[in-house]
Amino acid sequence: MTTATARRTPADKHDERRRALADSALRTLGELGYARASLREIANNSEFSHGVVHYYFHDKLELIVYCVRQYKATCVHRYDGVVADATTAEGLVEAFADKLAETIVDEAPMHRLWYDLRSQSMFEESLREAVLQIDQTLEDMVWRVVSTYAALAARPVGMTPHVTYGLLDGLFQQALLGYLCEREGVLDDLRDQVRELMPVLLAPAPSSSRRAKSER
Amino acid sequence: MTTATARRTPADKHDERRRALADSALRTLGELGYARASLREIANNSEFSHGVVHYYFHDKLELIVYCVRQYKATCVHRYDGVVADATTAEGLVEAFADKLAETIVDEAPMHRLWYDLRSQSMFEESLREAVLQIDQTLEDMVWRVVSTYAALAARPVGMTPHVTYGLLDGLFQQALLGYLCEREGVLDDLRDQVRELMPVLLAPAPSSSRRAKSER
DNA sequence: CCCGCGCCTTGACGACTGTCAAGACTTCTC
DNA sequence: GAGAAGTCTTGACAGTCGTCAAGGCGCGGG
User: Is residue B186 helix, strand or coil?
Assistant: First the structure.
């Protein structure tokens, strides 16, 4: 209020703290899951004490939802590079498959948390709004990839965005579980599965098989 | 031990009680989810008191795993009729799609519990063995349907059982969440999606398009 | 009749939970 | 440098949790 060009308004600092707290919380949540991550445990893994949570958040649930929304924001553009750098359909599939496998390795805790919360939202109505919003964002993200792929292949996508996301999410979830069980080869399998699946997502080739080679 | 042909051995009665308890527990678990279903709540919704759980089960976890295994046993043959009664590929798809939608309506609590437990198993290693076993059983179940469909269509399945299950499970899970959010039309959508998906699960038609009509 | 054994209830335990109030510490203002 | 506002810690609260021991009830065999 004093100086208009202050480095940080109090409100900024407040928001910054919320972000830092949410960051710590996300680490703990990814480790323990929604049900077992207590506020004390979350605070212990941060630089704060357990009481501070109610200074920045009204509720445990408000913290959780804030956390997941924050993660969504960082996660939602993970595949933008795949789309931007793609020049051929085959190259995009390859990059997409690699990125999916990389995501499983790098972000396994975050994604099991996401599946945990989505399951919880089937029981707790208070989680549904945030979950559905994030689910929609993920669907949009997948759709950007697949529709770009279709454009490069010069064929329309044969399925709705919703179905496309559902199918890929099913495979991804399966691979994540396999990865957490330390099954051998799940990542390679996932890559193969995506390479296999992407073509069948497209509408059947327009002219049966004649110009298949001369396409580009 | 006294009479060889006794109506019920004590062991039988013991098992019967375990089953009855697990039945009650399943109802409560389907209502509240894994994390919020306490032993007291489970016992309250049964004809027993809360202490009896430790007479029949060593642990809460043993009870839960027993419950889910028991449910699996009843659930695993739900689609057998679809397979047995099918005479044409189209008819099988129709019956399968209907049965999936019916399952969502009739067994929504059980299936959200299943997804809850599968998510929990990503955090709790002690749940993994049972979850993986059940997942495999479901995969087999789906495979019986799809491979029968392929046989009726006189074309091989184009994907592995694992992928087939993953894709269908993705759609089913999506539909279940939508159903629990009381979205309109999710059941019809699911049916349409399955009708659309099943043909693309098969390998590409062997001879491009010539005998498509004379097939049967 | 009474003893003993299986079945079940009751009550209590320690641990853990979310929440919040009281106060200490820091930071900024006048 | 005193005071006020903001920030954070500490400790306690009311509940709930899984677990288990102590004991009551019913029933069949001595």
Answer: helix
Determine how many CB atoms are found less than 10 A away from the CB of residue A154.
11
Q: Are residues A96 and A124 in the same domain?
A: yes
With bands split at pLDDT 50, 70 and 90, how would you rate the model's confidence at A13?
Answer: confident
Q: Do residue A104 and residue A194 come from a single domain?
A: yes
Between helices A186-201 and B161-180, what is the axis angle to 10°?
70
Q: Is residue A70 part of a domain?
A: no
- A104 and A153 housed in the same domain: yes
Residue nearest to nucleotide D9 (CA to C1'): A49
* B141 and B82 both lie in a single domain: yes
Q: CA of A51 vs C1' of D12, distance in Å? A: 12
Provide the CATH number for the domain around residue A31.
Answer: 1.10.10.60
Shortest CA distance to B112 belongs to which of B34, B182, B3, B52?
A: B34
B167, B181, B209 ranked by CB distance to A132: nearest? B181
Same domain, yes or no: A180 and A131: yes
The burial class, CB within 10 Å (0-12 / 13-18 / 19+), for A4 is exposed
Residue A178 φ/ψ, nearest 5 degrees: -60, -40
* Tens-place pLDDT, residues A52-83: 999 999 999 999 999 999 998 888 899 999 99
Residues A19 and A81 in one domain: no
Contacts for A60-65: CB closer than 8 Å, 24+ residues apart:
A61/A126, A61/A127, A63/A21, A63/A22, A63/A25, A63/A39, A64/A25, A64/A29, A64/A34, A64/A117, A64/A127, A65/A127, A65/A130
Residue type, B118: R
Per the domain annotation, does A92 fall within a domain? yes
Q: Which residues of B touch A209 (CB under 8 A)?
A: 208
* Protein-nucleic contacts, chain A 46-75 to strand D, CB < 7 Å: 47-52, 55-56
What is the mean pLDDT of the segment spanning B96-110? 97
Inter-chain residue contact B132 with A193, CB threshold 8 Å: no
**B49 and B102 together in one domain:** no
Number of structural domains found in chain A: 2
Six-digit token string for A175: 């691979």
Model pLDDT for residues A140-163, shown as the tens digit of each residue: 999 999 999 999 999 999 999 999
B212 touches chain A (CB under 8 A): no
Strand C contact nucleotides, protein CB < 7 Å: 6-11, 16-22, 29-30
Domain, as residue range, for A51: 11-63
Q: Do B115 and A122 touch (CB under 8 A)?
A: yes
